[in-house]
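Before the break, one more example. Copy the sequence into your notebook; we will annotate it together after we see the structure.
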Amino acid sequence: MTTTMTPEVVVGVRSHLDVEKIRRDFPALHQKVYGKPLVYLDNAATSQKPQAVIDAITRFFTIENSNIHRGVHYLSEQATRAYEEARVKVKEFINAREAREVIFCRSTTEGVNLVAQSFARRLVKPGDEILITAMEHHSNIVPWQILCEQTGAVLRVAPINDAGELLLPEFEKLLNPKTRLVSVAHISNALGTINPVEQIIETAHRRKIPVVIDGAQAAPHLKIDVQQLDCDFYLFSGHKMFGPTGIGVAYGKAHLLEAMPPYQGGGDMILSVTLEKTTYNVIPHKFEAGTPNIAGTIGLGATIDYLAGIGMENIAAYEQELLEYGTEKLSSIPGLRLIGTAKKKASILSFVMDGIHPHDIGTILDREGIAVRTGHHCAQPVMQRFGVPATVRASLAFYNTKEEIDALVAGLLEAGKVFG
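Here is what the structure looks like once it is written out:
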């Protein structure tokens, strides 16, 4: 068998994960909903947490609880050490050049807003252009719309085809001397499309245009190498990658972060303060005002340790197996149409069924213990592009099984019977 490696996904590799062993690490998976075993297929919204992450957070609050960077006592030193060790773990996870390029924030959404207001706002002027794609999450649309309203810049949108793939020639045509920034999703949350981000970045950089990557859906599923990608910013969230809520990462190249003003003011982002003037701290602390989510950050570090123990390449290979199996099974259901059929996809199955509203499907599945997401998935322009008000989205993780996909199929067939 021939094995082909790409930066985005492993093709032709069969995984050897002990999924049953992995499932034992996730206590939430072993419960019943309405008397049925839980089938959790809502991972693109938020993923479940392994016991190791839960234990790390509990240990912090039980033993190490203290504020960081400000204390000389033992607990503060322990908390600070764990917090900064998590930063180093993130640096290694995404292969950043330096740990100081890792900024902790609340989420991918806050990361996009940070880049928009601290980096891009100084870059754009009236008539300048910011380029995104038609498959973006609202979090990678609204902050740029706000910036355009503030500056008089124009938001341009690269189109996608009927499979949900970016039309690269059209994208390249939209790059012009007025383009000041490109911001794209690594993986579409509504379609599962894996964008050719390396090619997008190289194309933009030839024109000296900086690139922001929304990695919220990619970080849980793919091996990320920001140096290989050469992106200027890469943003992701802990809660979608088996870590806590309320913690995210904004990676930026050091020379860009150093030139950017603070996004928020307050404690810990200063070197000195007088009533006349403030001198700002060095990066990354310049962008981490106030008491941070210390427990969440430590939990994120534990998450990275857990994922490293499994291997992101193994995760990607297994999830591709699940995706192929799920695509085949769902495609056989009468009246079901998959929304998003890109050649390169991550483990997301979005679909509609003839004559049945997605919310009704979701309700029937819920009574069978099957958790999916229904609605526009904070991607209303995607729904408009495909002419549907909403979809059902089953999003897979490495702890899911083919048997759970079979349960989903059975639930969908039942929905078809109920609604005729």
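Residues 54-309 form a domain with the Aspartate Aminotransferase; domain 2 fold (CATH 3.40.640.10). Residues 74-94 form the longest helix (21 residues). Try to locate both features in your own notes.
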